[in-house]
Amino acid sequence: SPFEHRFKIRSLRSNLGRLKYSLKEHQEIVKALKKGDSIQAERLSQLHLDSILKNILAYGGKEEDKNKNAQNQSQSD
To answer: What is the residue extent of each domain of the chain?
Structure first.
């Protein structure tokens, strides 16, 4: 969905270190696939997905806090 795409782009932009790490994860998955090591590729893919989920949860929590703070500020004005 467009929302998911915007969220993904924003979260990656907000964390350039994560972007570099994500690229390295993708490169390792491709390397395993080129070697024909499907077990390693699957393992690396799962680790990558776990890492993405942790990042989304961490970023999402920060966004929720910002939204709550903005709401509280506008209600007190």
So the answer is: 2-76
Residue with tokens 């491709």, as numbered in its chain? 30
Report phi then psi at 54, rounded to 5.
-60, -40
CA geometry: angle 50, 38, 23, nearest 5 deg: 45
Q: What is the value of pTM for the model shown? A: 0.60
Residue 77 is given by DSSP the state -
67-70: long-range contacts at Cβ-Cβ below 8 A with a sequence spacing of 24 or more? Answer: none
Give me the helices (H) in the chain, please. 2-13, 16-35, 38-76
Q: pLDDT tens digits for 5-55? A: 777 777 666 677 778 888 999 999 999 999 999 999 999 999 999 998 988
